[in-house]
């Protein structure tokens, strides 16, 4: 399976994918390219170090959002990927792109959808909201991207407990370490190996026990 | 600490409280009385078997909701409890009762608040909604009751993984066994032993690690 990874920042989830490929927990998968909307994203360096094509497609290069959306989609399509992976990518994916890759775009969200998701919930804001509500359990979700924000079929989720004294920054890091870096590679491996079925907006994974990773 | 337990049905959460008192995982706590809105609730039998006063206060005995609310509150107050525990209690608690017992009423909800909670989410409907959304993680929440529905300060939560083939009934039972029967007694013990502080609508528990029970 050929994947293209879309990023906006440091690329720790991209690194988790590289590590999982190297240690064999993702099989049958090649990262064909990495695309960032942000020229300063360290994720681009991570890709270059592995000799993987790394592109920047910034909204600032275009006169309109529509032109950027076209270029963003074209950049992804240029790698002919089987799967598009949003790995800490803050770009809102256009409807045209969702339709071009139906059930072939996945995203990692740093909360247990349907909690703390939707418009306005991204990055640290997600963890600020969880702490503000005083929940004890949060986590991360890998889901297929549909036309809504964080509304697509859920593939995997993993719970993370909040502790007294957690700040948004501490919690963000713990959710990455304990959940995101585990379930995003696991979802890619399941897709690469034909384990995932989507039916009536719900994901089915035969012979799989949830909560064991 | 004297508690009164309000119930509507079989009373498995009430039984979990009795068991936790018997095995010493709840200390410094006495169940002073059990009150049901439903005369057929098996929870009343569980109380009687232990020699604990068991009352039924049914809305059908009253001409109006206001009169029932007054009688329901009076019944709880008749035991002079330090804490009111809603253990599978489907009665909507009146504002007068919330004010009479500020931060002294706790409820168990069979989901990870703020997911699948609020008006209309009770009993099997909670689990139907979780399965319909296709989430992988659900759980239970113990929280203080305020004037809203499932909006009060959260004390404890515990995650439960959903599995392929789960029905609402299977999931309801697993959430009880793996979460409700554990965190409801644990929350009572923490309160009985002065471990809980409520500040700015959030619960703090000093020297406690979440996710270990």
Task: Outline the structure in words.
The structure is a homodimer of 213-residue chains. Chain A has helices spanning 12-22, 42-49, 65-77, 95-100, 124-133, 168-192; strands at residues 2-7, 30-36, 54-56, 83-86, 105-109, 137-144, 154-161, 196-199, 202-205. Chain A is α/β, with parallel strands linked by helices. Chain A has a domain at 2-108 and 142-154 and 179-205: Formyl transferase, N-terminal domain (Rossmann fold, 3-Layer(aba) Sandwich). In chain A, the strands form two sheets. Chain A has a seven-stranded mixed β-sheet, with helices on both faces. The longest helix of chain A is centred in the last third of the chain and has 25 residues, at 168-192. The two termini of chain A are 23 Å apart. The model of chain A has no long low-confidence stretch (mean pLDDT 97).
Helices and strands of chain A, in order, run as EHEHEHEHEHEEHEE
Q: Tell me roughly what share of residues is in helical segments of chain A.
A: 25-40%
Strand order, largest beta sheet of chain A: 3-2-1-4-5-6-7
Mean pLDDT of chain A: 97
- Give the beta-strand count of chain A: 9
Assembly category: homodimer
Q: Whole-Å distance between the termini of chain A?
A: 23 Å
CATH architecture descriptor text of one domain in chain A = 3-Layer(aba) Sandwich
Cα-atom Rg of chain A, whole angstroms? 16 Å
Name the CATH class of one domain in chain A: Alpha Beta
């Amino acid at each position: 399976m050929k994947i293209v990874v879309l990023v906006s920042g440091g690329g720790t989830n991209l690194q988790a994918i590289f590590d999982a490929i190297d240690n064999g927990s993702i099989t049958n998968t090649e990262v064909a390219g990495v695309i960032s909307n942000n020229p300063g994203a360290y994720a681009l360096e991570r890709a270059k170090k592995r000799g993987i094509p790394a592109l920047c497609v910034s909204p600032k290069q275009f006169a309109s959002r529509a032109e950027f959306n076209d270029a963003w989609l074209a950049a992804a399509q240029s790698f002919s990927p089987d799967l598009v992976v949003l790995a800490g990518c803050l770009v809102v994916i256009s409807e045209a792109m969702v339709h071009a890759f139906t059930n072939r775009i996945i995203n990692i969200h740093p909360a247990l959808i349907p909690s703390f998701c939707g418009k306005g919930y991204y990055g640290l804001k997600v963890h600020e909201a969880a702490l503000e509500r005083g929940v004890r359990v949060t986590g991360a979700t890998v889901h297929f991207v549909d036309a809504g924000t964080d509304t697509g079929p859920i593939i995997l989720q993993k719970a993370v407990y909040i502790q007294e004294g957690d700040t948004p920054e501490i919690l963000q890091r713990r959710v990455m370490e304990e959940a995101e870096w585990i379930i995003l590679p696991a979802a890619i491996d399941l897709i690469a190996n034909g384990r995932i079925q989507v039916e009536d907006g719900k994901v089915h994974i035969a012979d799989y026990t949830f909560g064991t990773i």
